[in-house]
Amino acid sequence: MLKKDTFLKDKPQLQDLYWPPVNFYQINQLLHNYLTTNTSLEEFIANEKRYDKIGEKLNIALSEIYAYMYGYKDSILFQRQNKDLDILILTKKIEVEEYFLHNWLNIEKFPDTSFLNQEDLAIYFEEESINSEGMHHSFFDFIADEMDREAMIHFLKTEICRNEYVDDEVALLTVGLQGNMKKVSASNLWDECGCGLLQNFHTYWLRRLMLNITDYESFLDWRLTKPWQFSLTSNIFNCLLSNPALKLAAYGCFTTTEQWVECHFNKIIKGMRRVGLCSGDALVYFEKHKTIDPHHTEELVQAIRFQSPRLTKEELAIIHKGSLLAIKVAVLAYDRMLDFYTKNSNFN
Length: 348
Ligand SMILES: [Fe+2]
Ligand SMILES: [Fe+2]
Description:
Layout: H1 6-9, H2 29-36, H3 41-44, H4 51-70, H5 83-104, H6 118-127, H7 138-145, H8 149-163, H9 166-174, H10 179-192, H11 202-213, H12 216-222, H13 232-241, H14 247-274, H15 280-305, H16 313-343
Helix pairs in contact: 4-5, 4-13, 6-15, 7-14, 8-11, 9-10, 10-15, 11-15, 13-14, 13-16, 14-15, 14-16
This protein binds fe (ii) ion (2 copies).
């Protein structure tokens, strides 16, 4: 419950900024044509044979589609209804996601581990998913020990984008869950929303980080240059969140990535301190999550263990598939991020 005088007293200074930090902009012509005409996906990715080039096209389309889904300022139909365009964009959404999951990520080839019961699946999370290659990827050691200040600032901007609407994602995750799983998702959302205080919204901590390394207007311009591989992990989560049949896969995906936060954020903090980004404003987002997310992880896994009605074998399998997807996509993303920072020397 909120405090009685909350609206009078809860007015932190940075609340005036529109969030997420996006602006109206023109999407590129090729993508615009694809999303707003009968152009097929084959035509959109035509001539692209290389895995990463196809990945780039799929992911810029997905990012655009999810901005549309959330209705933020940068979305193609911001506060506008247009039946014909809505139909086209939603059709393209299904088409791109299908290709992304089945062709690009090849989910049919995933191992078919069957869990006997939810207690076994909880043990999988406690023992395997947390120790996967997503958790221990060398990209985070690079951040801790080698990344220079300029690259670090670029990386932090991508982190702001990756996390800028986690509260809305968790809100979507909550819809349609049952019992304990809904309870922990709602608890997570309440934390994301600062337990009722605007200055403790996790996105408020991102505002503080952003203004510590850049200014709002510059950030709006910068984000248009963000390379596609930095959107991969958000895109897979939103793909699962927005497909009714994959709702439980979203839960498995989220649980897995939450499990890695403490380890990854410790390494990010180490790297930030090493390059002199040590202020409270810079570090608050990462410092707070180091302690909050282990709790979230514990809750998410325990909710599986104690879920009632009990999860069926099919439900266990789909949660597990979401976890495998999180790992596969994270490794794909981290490999490419590491490449990006080691092969380039100029970052804006
Ligand atoms: Fe958070
Ligand atoms: Fe969390």
